[in-house]
Design a protein that fits this description.
123 residues, alpha/beta, Rossmann fold, four-stranded mixed β-sheet, 5 helices, 19% strand, globular, Class_I_gatase-like, C56_PfpI-like, DJ-1/PfpI domain-containing protein
Length: 123
């Protein structure tokens, strides 16, 4: 995405997905990025994260009291951020929060997103 943080209007989107990998290590240090993810949640939008993306959820305060799926390193972060329960694998939807432990859980992660967004897929 090549847009300035200030130009993003949450009302133009149905959800935000924080990817895993290395990018969350940079995103979590950007106050505008963290605030934007928090704004999606405050507006009742779907917020989703895979693996390292949980760093941004934790910084936004979105894991507190929620069930989530986290791999080993992010399990520590999720627990410190106040997650109510942490599943070691798979994907979990808790309200409008969707989390996945790792990339092998993408199918289940996408299934939760499709369900929450009301998307119908047919072949």
């Amino acid at each position: 995405m090549t847009v300035d943080w200030a130009d993003i209007d949450v009302d133009d989107y149905e959800c935000v997905v924080v990817p895993g990998g290395r990018s969350p290590e940079l995103l979590v240090t950007n106050e505008k990025a963290v605030a934007l993810v928090g704004k999606f949640a405050a507006e009742g939008k779907v917020v989703a994260s895979i693996d390292q993306g949980h760093l941004v959820l934790a910084a936004s305060g979105l894991l507190k009291g929620k069930r989530c799926a986290s791999g080993v390193p992010m399990r520590v972060i999720s627990n410190l951020a106040g997650a109510a329960a942490v599943e070691p694998e798979g994907a979990v939807a808790d309200g409008k929060l969707v989390t996945a432990a790792s990339w092998p859980d993408l199918a289940e992660f996408i299934a939760h997103l499709v369900d929450l967004l009301g998307i119908t897929v047919s072949f």
